[in-house]
Batch of 3 targets.
Target 1
Amino acid sequence: MTITTHPPACIAPEHLISALKSQGYGVLSGQGTKSLINHADLDAIRASWDNLPPDIFLKDGGLYRRRRHACFVATASSLLQMPHRAHYQPLSYNALHGGMHRLFEPVETSTLQQPAWQALLLAMSKLCSEIKGPQPWYIEAHQFRIDTLNGIGRPTPEGAHRDGVDFVAILLVNRENISGGESRIFEAKGPNGQRFTLSERWTLLFLDDQKVIHESTPIQPTATGGHRDTLVLTFRSGGFLEATSTS
């Protein structure tokens, strides 16, 4: 069987803001992402994906997802890590796992201390401010590994969704011995959509969460050890999502 993948149409970093304003998303190549953060060594954090604990909150009973989580507040010149906290989404944004306070294991200190980690979060926060005005950005960082040890793995078991934030950044850290994992982007208030597969390491998909809905299709193994690693960063103005949030 022949499986066709469609690569994304990558743009230069200087065009990322205009892409989000015009169509709600933009994609940088791995080289573009490295340029965005002044070529800090992203590969220095990649090994930490081999040490992610299981996600114990999957309601579909799956054993295919591992993750860590951390929270920050970014300003124009600083990145402050917040005390470890549970991840929360309302049911209106996540019909499968919404309404739950999910306390995941924290991102390891050795990862957070890497210059590339800090450069990435600050660079993305700067882009958010250039689009919606200078302000503090409340960031949640999620390290994900979706594996195929028990067959199919589901990057987004909740289906096509919004995250209830302002912006979402999805970085492909690695993919090995899998097929699938196609990214799908849909207009939140329109008929148009795009589909493509992130395959180059450190490719960045940046989304305006108010304008588009997104999902990733299931993955299947093509050989032993198949998995897909991503870093998902969400940026929200005004504060973290809480159980009392109405937005």
Target 2
Amino acid sequence: MESDFLVCAIALSKVFAFECATGRALIEHFGGPEAVFSAGPRILHEALGSSRGDWVEKLSDRALREWAREEWAWNRRYGIRPLYYESEDYPRRLKECPDAPIILYVKGEDILDSERMLAVVGTRRASYYGRTSCKQIVATLARNPRPPVIVSGLAFGIDGAAHEAALEAGLPTVAAIPGPLDQIYPPGHRDLARRILEQGGALVTDFARGDGYSPVQFLRRNRLIAGLSDATLLVESFAKGGGLLTTGLANSYGREVFALPGRSTDAGSEGCNRQIAANLARLATGAEDIEKAMNWEPPRRRKALQRTLDFGDDPLRRAIGAILAERSPIGFAALLEALRERLSAGGTAPDTLPDAALLSALLVELEIEGKIAALPGDRYSQGFVTFA
């Protein structure tokens, strides 16, 4: 049953929270989460090594699976989806990472496999420059016909600015939090988390209820930010900071890293400037640099170029060409009226002005010669249109 399978997977994710690769290797060794719990202590010792008796003890404790059943029931009650790392709905980018969690808890919309995902991170002590630059970059990306989902960590500073900018620009955003979903951190951003969900975003974590908070959990959270994204943008960072840890993880995953440069005298830009100088991050002065490097540039609107056409010496043909050059496309009746007005202004006698039959015959000749184009709705335009 799916519930038994997920209960076992949730239990394993709890035990191997900081050793995800070991937990996944154990699952593969036994052929699935349920098979791990079917093995006795002796077989588990053989698989894990005699030095890992603590793991064997935890896996052999019946209370572990009881806790996992309660966790699964709580997730269902509050609309949280536990995604198993080998399931089809597990985020494909994160699955590629060697330290991907066994279970990823998701609250909100199913957007983790969106076409484009961009992480935006930086210092908690964000300056006006950092906040405004973050907003401008996200706003520009939002105008792309295929904009990215913005991923960040819900922290104060640049993370919060990135989420706020995405919401303001109408982009969905994903917040990876460093603790369980029943304890949104930081508490000051609970309203922001609520708005993220209300506007089509998602909250993600690999922590279960009761895990609390510790410094190492922020590093685990950072790997989700980097792992879920195609690229990571470091907006502002001091010489040391969590944003640098995230870009380091992104580099280790083979993902693109960008950094916004700052003045050499600004301590808050030192981390960004060093990353750029060390070729650990691409220079990004704006959204356009990111779009170009990621091949996310919007298609250029092709500009129509109209050649100057030779309609010959005949006054009627020349007048038709002049009108079409000014008013393409134009309907037949409007063209006839404009033609008669132009010729009258030039001194043509009223009784010699063209009628509908003559104009129709001339238009057929000009179309055959390629000098005009007949359009749907009895409209006409100048011919030989090319594009740049």
Target 3
Amino acid sequence: MKKLLGITLGIMTALGGFVDLGQIVFTTQAGALFGYRLLWAIVLGTVAIIVYMEMCGRVAVVAQEPVFAVVRTRLGPKLGLATLIASNLLNLLTCAAEVGGLAIGVHLLTGWPERTVLVGVSALLGVLIFVLSFQWIERLFGLSGLLMIVFAISAYTLHPNWRELVAGLSPTWHPSGRNQILLYLYFAVGIFSAMLMEYEVHFYSSGAMEEDWKPEDLSENLMVASLGSLLGSLLTVGLMVLGVILFLPHGIFPEQLSTAVFAGSFPFGQRVLTIAIVGTLACIGGAAVETALSGAYNVCQFFNWPWGKNLPARSVPIYTATWIGMLVLGTVIAFSGVRPLQLINISIIFGMAIMPLTYYPILRAAADEKLMGRHVNTKGNTAVGMFFLALIVVAAIAAFPLMLLTHSGRP
């Protein structure tokens, strides 16, 4: 039972990372524009995050070094500090977008004014984080986020073209026209980036230490990383299928969270719509919690200050003040009227640009025999990690120019 409950860490990490506000709309848009032709980007991103989540979990367990302790050690104080600032700016933007997305979802469910809801959901998140232990936070958001499975069920019920879906596993399509090519590349980079958002590994490695995993739990580490990521990937594929079936034939480009959520209940009606909205709220809320806590983890781990959700708040004052500050500032940004999806578009591309500075130190630490002993990377692990790191670097270089050239993915 303990191992089964431990999987909720992977579920929450994956659902909060894969199926957050940006991925829900972004992947549906990709399906509406390109059919199944970007399915390969989901598969590539899934394998990459499994590889790196397993590595960062193993480093945290064996060496007792979470991600930002590794960043400080491997990049040095100056570059490490720059990475800390950039990563927490990314966490703040993402947290603001997710809180704004929560307000939209609750408004859809209740009809209450969005700004009033925004303050209320932020306060509720703060209370839940403060009151609940780390284990109960991951169980609450991880298990309630499973309601998102309704999107995959809806996609299956609508009878996708399986031959075209399987063909989408190969990136062999050649778009016609410069604008189509640029859009295709933008969405490929965006989907890949959204599945590797840095806060996933920040939260996951810290969670492994919060749960006091030992080297004998490393098989659980691989299982948690794999099952959680595969579930998140399945739901992401479901979102793409819904975009293909419901929007592509009619030339509709879904630009609102509400449009994507309604697609999740299309075959079933009102009752399932409520389930779809609640599942969406759980995933978006999980992402908001992950980014707020990740900001606090990052600061304390970099400066070697006490941290931990399971410790009394007074014994970790900087950690507590930082996650509260992240949540408050995120709420202020969302309250200013900036559209959540605009923030998400910026955060996805910005996240891609700084991603190598997170994943390179993880790979180096996992491959360090002095640090890891008999749990060091195999040659195969390191080779696969280097392959994905090379893809991350290429995508990081391409991300910002593609955003400018496509006007953030506008068809």
